[in-house]
Design a protein that fits this description.
heterodimer, A: mainly alpha, 10 helices
Chain lengths: ~260, ~300
């Protein structure tokens, strides 16, 4: 049931993000100041924000940003992490030691602290958010893949491929990396949740996507000033983030149970 | 134990050196001229030159790095551009507040997680276990920057029971501590449940049951005690999440700690203060991890020989 719930939430959000412009006839940026902070109504099912913009239209546009950041961060981090991790694990020795030290230093910054630091100096923008989150994101995949490769590289079929004279790149791409992919796919699904929360956190702190581009994090931040007179500005984007993150967490857990029965 | 401690401390030194170097590099990642970024586009050339001299940016990179490292060794984190005071003093003034918040959050997490985890393990597979597991998954998925305003809406705006922000009384601490502790509570609930379920399979639990001890007593008095080591480790490891969580929680509730200082420093482009706060939080995290490892090695001698 949980697997299905996760899948329904994630697919539902993707669909809503794609057909967003047809779901809400309003432009997410167009302002209607006389109606600012209006509560939900038939015309505006989720109400209007502090500048009189339709909250549903902004929520749908924000979904595109969240999913884009999630996919970009997870996609690039996975590519970098798998490449670096498999090289470190397969080659061992000095390469592994150097990569290990770099990873140790990056892991010494808790959570999104390094991403905050990077965006603080590079300046807040969507591109810099993705860059900052990839900088901290690839390490988790690299560690995972390195561990898996250390186990796999001693197996006979890898030794056989090496003995047959297959070049390093072929052994890695054709034999070593595929055997780590199931673990990576679980981490990538859970990583989507992490990336979406991280983007929203940065935007909430004013370090992410900049107004007027709608992001769930910036919408929450703007809603904070209206807790008393318009709580829907806080409730709606927050619920969207929590539900989507829950969806990816459900999906990741279900994927793990399916791919690794021992973890269940 | 001493050899293990020394080995573990020696492993931490290059990490700290790497962290310090990365933090040093931060100001050089600012696109264009950092002095211009701090003072603005219209700043007079004389002011820019003066700031560059003050920050040492007009010196060769190696000299800057040498000064930076010697400063760090002496506990000098530089001077805040906005407050014109030592960065270390600014952090020191707010440290107590952050520590108070982090400890309160940990206490909240433990009070929620341990009973929920025990219930989950005791009634594994039953409805109450599903409720506890789902609650913990919801807790993990609920971002603190939403939970905070949500709690404020319910307990401050609607019920009027607790203040919405600021400091002064214990009541001011409740909402920030719950906001910060909720995710940790969720993780700890899952961990307590999982380790307890593992422990329940052990023979000593069966022996206790064979002696006629009730299931609840076998769990609480015997198995729970043994599951404390991994739970304690998770508390230590999650300290990082708590530390970064303070940044958002302090911003939401206007709590005057190091996290809020960092965000204010970023908005004022006070780069020395930003670097100081980042370095301070990272070093605290590394030190805490070191202490947890040493504690773990002391509690479980097998760790020392690995």
């Amino acid at each position: 049931m949980i697997r299905r719930a996760g899948l329904v939430i994630v697919l539902g959000t993707v669909l809503a993000a794609l057909v967003g412009p047809w779901l809400s006839p309003f432009d997410p940026a167009s302002q209607n100041l006389p109606l600012r902070l209006a509560a939900p109504s038939l015309a505006h099912p989720l109400g209007l924000d502090e500048l009189g913009r339709d909250l549903l239209a902004r929520l749908l546009a924000g979904a595109r940003i969240s999913l884009f950041v999630g996919c970009a961060v997870v996609g690039i981090s996975t590519l970098v992490g798998v490449a670096v991790g498999s090289l470190a694990g397969y080659l061992g020795g000095k390469v592994d030691a150097i990569i290990g030290r770099i990873m140790d230093v990056l892991m010494a910054f808790p959570g999104i602290l390094l991403a905050i630091a990077l965006v603080a100096v590079l300046g807040p923008s969507l591109r810099n958010v993705v860059l900052a989150l990839v900088t901290i994101g690839w390490v988790g995949y690299a560690r995972l893949v390195r561990g898996q490769v250390l186990k796999v590289r001693e197996l006979e079929f890898i030794q056989a491929a090496r003995a047959l004279g297959a070049p390093l790149s072929r052994v890695l791409v054709r034999h070593v990396i595929p055997s780590t992919l199931s673990a990576v796919s679980v981490q990538a699904t859970l990583g989507m949740a992490g990336a979406i929360i991280a983007e929203a956190s940065l935007s909430f702190l004013g370090l992410g996507v900049q107004p007027p581009t709608p992001s769930w994090g910036t919408m929450l931040d703007a809603g904070r000033a209206h807790l008393f007179d318009a709580p829907h500005l806080t409730l709606v984007p927050g619920a969207a983030i929590a539900i989507l993150v829950l969806g990816f967490n459900f999906l990741g857990d279900a994927l793990r149970d399916r791919l690794d029965p021992r973890a269940g | 134990m001493l050899a293990y401690a020394l080995r573990r401390i020696a492993m931490t030194i290059p990490v700290l050196a790497g962290v310090a170097t990365l933090v040093f590099a931060l100001i050089h990642l600012v696109p264009g001229d950092p002095a211009q970024a701090m003072l603005g586009e219209s700043a007079p050339a004389a002011d820019l030159a003066e700031l560059r001299t003050r920050l040492g940016l007009d010196q060769p990179l190696t000299t800057q790095y040498r000064h930076y490292v010697t400063g760090l060794v002496r506990g000098n984190l530089g001077t805040s551009f906005r407050y014109n005071t030592p960065v270390a003093r600014e952090i020191g003034q707010r440290l107590g507040r952050t520590a108070q918040l982090a400890m309160a959050a940990m206490a909240v997490a433990l009070v929620i997680a341990i009973p929920l985890g025990i219930i989950g393990a005791l009634f594994r597979g039953r409805a109450i276990d599903h409720v506890a597991t789902t609650l913990s998954l919801v807790g993990v998925s609920m971002p603190n920057f939403w939970l905070g305003p949500l709690l404020a809406i319910v307990f401050s705006v609607w019920l009027g029971w607790l203040p919405v922000s600021g400091t002064g009384t214990w009541a001011h601490l409740v909402l920030p501590a719950v906001t910060l502790g909720a995710a940790l509570a969720a993780i700890l609930t899952r961990m307590t449940r999982a380790t307890l379920i593992d422990e329940l399979r052990e023979l000593y639990v069966l022996a206790a049951r064979a002696r006629g001890i009730s299931r609840t007593r076998a769990v609480v008095a015997h198995a729970f005690r043994n599951s404390l080591i991994p739970v304690a480790t998770i508390v230590g490891l999650q300290l990082g999440a708590v530390l970064t969580g303070t940044i958002i929680t302090e911003t939401i509730f206007a709590w005057p700690g190091v996290g809020r200082l960092l965000i204010q420093a970023i908005s004022f482009r006070d780069y020395p203060l930003v670097q100081g706060c980042i370095l301070f939080i990272a070093v605290t995290y590394v030190t805490m991890n070191l202490l947890v490892d040493l504690l773990y090695g002391w509690l479980d001698p097998r760790i020392r020989y690995q």
